[in-house]
């Protein structure tokens, strides 16, 4: 878990703003759910036999003895809230997004943290392939909007309660034949969660998984038809994708279409976003039979990648106020407030050091302009403006400007005047 300082926070702010703006255009509204939920909610929805529930949750006992967990993902909370608030009675289709921290006790490594941030998007109330296509399009647009390039879209279907059990049986009997060669973990998964063997990164398991029966070959008619229509929709959007029959996702609630977005250069943690349908989850958590689909993207990973390729967000030009004497300081207060109200950044030395130390601070902050207010300036009704970027000796280096013209002068020199007029 990490601290975020202003130089990093500005990247986060930029990313979050772009995401919110993109999602708004698709008609998704923000939902904010608590960070803590009853442990049972996650155990039931994500699945008792998943890595997340078995070993990654931050779970503790509340004062009344009940078990609480810091959310490891957002879908379960959104569905809980949807059911609790009878949302289906208010709108036939609900579109939500959320942005915020999730918690998983994983082994930290590049791109994998114990507190990480996701943007998650959920569409509840449609069984139709149109929802799948919209969701995948939203995901690709969101990632593109924040500037991540070179991603690859992976697509699969996990079938439904009708066709998956048969597939599971044929997979288990195939894996049983190769049991000895599987890693220890997969030998255990064979009993508890055999589909997860398909995405094991161990070389031996990976080799075996390559030869495993493919679920897409045994989908029931409805699931196969659904998948076909989703593919046709993606083709209409000219979205390229790779069918990846080994992509099974790490959460048990998925049905039918699943997808991931991979980015190069992130090592083993290359999934920047992932999601799929969860048509049975609303019912499983006590609501009516309402289908849904969604995805979540890992923003920490995306940021790692962005910082390699995109220039740092431009800092606001700083204006630094330097004063000499109590009267000048008092006069500077209103002046600074007025300037800030026009949209520029103005700082001053709240330690009220000597002129020399104030100038030093201005320098340290990389100030573009230093405004000097002392007895002389007070007497003449002017402010001295030093342009820290101007060449020494240039007539712009230091000028005296009447107080009432100061705004205009600064905005003009910062190139902001035209923007304001527009
Ligand atoms: P997930 O695949 O578990 O899905 O997580 C989504 C994304 O979160 C991953 O692709 C990855 O980028 C990021 N992520 C996961 N764990 C970590 C970590 N420890 N450190 C950094 N980033 C991480 C879900 O969470 C589902 N709730 C997605 C969903 C929404 N499905 C339907 N609706």
Core attributes:
single chain, 422 residues, alpha+beta, BirA Bifunctional Protein, domain 2, Rossmann fold, 8-stranded mixed beta sheet, 17 helices, 41% helix, 21% strand, binds histidyl-adenosine monophosphate
Largest sheet composition: 8 strands, mixed
Helix and strand composition category? alpha+beta
The end-to-end distance, rounded to whole angstroms, is: 44 Å
Identify the quaternary structure here: single chain
Give the number of helices. Answer: 17
β-strand percent reads 15-25%
At the first level of CATH, what is the class of the largest domain?
A: Alpha Beta
Please provide the count of β strands.
16
Which residue ranges are poorly predicted, with pLDDT under 50 across at least 5 consecutive positions?
A: none
Helical content class: 40-55%
Please, what is the CATH homologous superfamily of the largest domain?
Bira Bifunctional Protein, Domain 2
Q: Can you list the strand order of the major beta sheet?
A: 1-5-6-11-10-9-7-8
Outline: elongated
CATH architecture field of the largest domain:
2-Layer Sandwich
How is the CATH topology of the largest domain named?
A: BirA Bifunctional Protein, domain 2
